[in-house]
């Protein structure tokens, strides 16, 4: 059962917005049944991002490492809590990068005799039918403390994983590198390497074929320093077209400057010279994006970067969420800057990343997001100023209204539950309005003809004080206005119905938001 890993394959695969980790749409039982991974194949999809929405799973997690086992994608993250509460690890699996199954407590500190806290940064790999999971524990700050990097082993991807050595595999600082944030890489010649390091230093070691002991380099050394410029932590190695890519995190893990840079080499041990930063915060989308891994869709040259980030309204350092976006290469093999896109087609039948305001109910099902009477607002934790924002809208009844809210602030306030702007459809009218003090004031409107059940794409562009609304595939806007009262804020979906209305008002799909030049819609 060979493991197809991004780093080894030549061709490849908010805020209060997040619900507690136990509230996945289809949570796994406490003791999940083994997954039959032999009869499925990962879809050779080419997504621009997590099209079904980032975060792609519910709950606070960090440091995701993704691997392909038996044609199923597996993500192993850190459980993002206080160090004393980081005592177990969950995993997530998917065949299509859309629908994810949670596997609870695949590794538990109770099964590691020497570990007591700070269980983090899992690094998975399969070899000869055994599944290995490397991990850091105890966050040691000196050689006088017990802890470091350990390895656990299991007979199946979802575990349970048990300590394979009974002690840390690496238990001390070498070349100034704190023994944390490990990544394991199996090269085409069968040699396995472990990359790791914190406190601004990075090492690589060779693993013996048993995967549970350290080997030596040709010169007799065990630990080789490979620290690139600006290295902080979070090493990750992969190979593409014969080139070795080392990625790492820079900045402070609780700060907005946490980011990802990379180097390229013709050897798995370097030298590694920093080329560029490729993933960093976007003040309209999320902060602190870092500690990444990479996966290659088997049989293609499609690559994704998996990472954690902090929703804009969150200040707690442990409130980190998992995301992925598409990663592209230039003809010379260098990596293009990675854009954190905002999309949601609700194909996963959940609304992770959305927060509802008002009395109306919201339900994600059957590939859409439906707002029910009496109406309300649902927003994402974004802060766009200039924007291109679009969604497909289907009115459920002749009396319903639905539309897009943008530059929304003061969430939950007033009759409209926000201040900002909204573009709203009814079966006979399209309206652009400004909301101040939670009350709407029409800026402009135009007649339309829509039937209940008819789906139409509504698109808003805003650049400075210039606002425009497009309906369907019309090249020219249906509405324009000039207004400078609101400059930035969240994007949202809005529904309303007549007094006494009951049931669904409208369904939304294929939400996309970005800058005016970069968003599709």
TrEMBL record:
Site (Important for catalytic activity, responsible for pKa modulation of the active site Glu and correct orientation of both the proton donor and substrate): 181
Domain (3-keto-alpha-glucoside-1,2-lyase/3-keto-2-hydroxy-glucal hydratase): residue spans on this chain: 346-511
Keywords: Carbohydrate metabolism, Glycosidase, Hydrolase, Polysaccharide degradation, Signal, Xylan degradation
Active site residues according to the UniProt entry: 63, 233
Pfam families: 3keto-disac_hyd (PF06439), Glyco_hydro_43 (PF04616)
Region (Disordered): 474-501
Molecular function via GO: hydrolase activity, hydrolyzing O-glycosyl compounds
The keyword Hydrolase is assigned to this record: yes
InterPro entries to which the protein is assigned, alphabetical: AL/BT2_dom, Glyco_hydro_43, Glyco_hydro_beta-prop_sf, Glycosyl_Hydrlase_43_Enz
Residue ranges the record marks as coiled coil: none
Signal peptide: 1-25
GO biological process, alphabetically ordered: xylan catabolic process
Family recorded in the similarity comment: Belongs to the glycosyl hydrolase 43 family.
Annotated protein name in UniProt: Arabinan endo-1,5-alpha-L-arabinosidase
Organism the protein comes from: Streptomyces triticirhizae
């Amino acid at each position: 059962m060979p493991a197809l890993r991004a780093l080894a394959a030549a061709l490849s695969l908010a805020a209060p917005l997040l619900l507690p980790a136990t509230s996945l749409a289809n949570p796994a039982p406490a003791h999940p049944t083994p997954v039959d991974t032999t009869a499925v194949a990962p879809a050779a999809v080419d997504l621009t991002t997590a099209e079904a929405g980032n975060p792609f799973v519910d709950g606070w997690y960090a440091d995701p490492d993704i691997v392909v086992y038996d044609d199923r994608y597996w993500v192993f993250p850190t459980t993002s809590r206080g160090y004393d509460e980081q005592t177990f690890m969950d995993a997530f699996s998917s065949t299509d990068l859309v629908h994810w199954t949670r596997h609870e407590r695949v590794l538990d500190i109770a099964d590691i005799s020497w570990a007591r806290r700070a269980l983090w940064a899992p690094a998975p790999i399969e070899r000869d039918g055994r599944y290995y999971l490397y991990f850091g524990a105890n966050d040691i700050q000196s050689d006088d403390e017990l802890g470091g990097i350990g390895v656990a082993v299991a007979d199946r991807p979802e575990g349970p994983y048990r300590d394979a050595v009974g002690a840390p595999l690496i238990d001390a600082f070498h070349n100034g590198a704190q023994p944390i944030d490990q990544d394991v890489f199996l090269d085409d010649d069968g040699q396995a390497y472990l990359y790791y390091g914190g406190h601004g230093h990075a090492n690589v070691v060779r693993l013996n074929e048993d995967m549970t002991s350290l080997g030596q380099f040709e010169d007799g050394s065990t630990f080789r320093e490979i620290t690139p410029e600006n290295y902080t932590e979070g090493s990750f190695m992969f190979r593409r077209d014969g080139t070795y890519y080392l990625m790492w995190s820079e900045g402070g893990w609780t700060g907005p400057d946490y980011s990802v840079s990379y180097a390229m080499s013709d050897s798995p041990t370097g030298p590694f010279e920093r080329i560029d930063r490729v993933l960093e915060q976007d003040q309209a989308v999320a902060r602190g994006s870092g500690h990444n891994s990479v996966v290659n869709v088997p049989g293609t040259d499609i690559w994704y970067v998996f990472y954690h980030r902090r929703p804009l309204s969150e200040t707690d350092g442990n409130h980190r969420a998992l995301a992925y976006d598409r990663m592209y290469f230039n003809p010379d093999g260098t990596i293009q800057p990675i854009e954190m896109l905002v999309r949601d087609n609700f194909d996963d039948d959940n609304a992770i990343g959305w927060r509802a305001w008002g009395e109306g109910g919201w339900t994600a099902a059957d590939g859409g997001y439906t707002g029910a009477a009496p109406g309300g607002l649902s927003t994402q934790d974004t802060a766009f100023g200039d924007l291109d924002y679009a969604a497909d809208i289907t009115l459920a009844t002749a009396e319903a209204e639905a539309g897009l809210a943008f530059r929304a602030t003061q969430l939950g306030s007033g009759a409209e539950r926000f201040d900002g702007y909204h573009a709203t459809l009814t079966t006979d009218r399209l309206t652009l309005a400004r909301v101040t003090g939670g009350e709407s004031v029409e800026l402009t409107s135009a007649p339309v003809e829509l039937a209940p059940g008819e789906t139409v794409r509504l698109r808003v562009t805003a650049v400075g004080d210039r606002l425009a609304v497009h309906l369907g595939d019309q090249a020219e806007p249906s509405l324009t206005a000039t207004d400078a009262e609101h400059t930035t804020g969240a994007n949202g979906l809005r529904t309303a119905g007549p007094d006494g209305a009951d049931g669904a008002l409208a369904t939304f799909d294929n939400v996309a938001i970005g800058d005016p030049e970069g968003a599709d819609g």
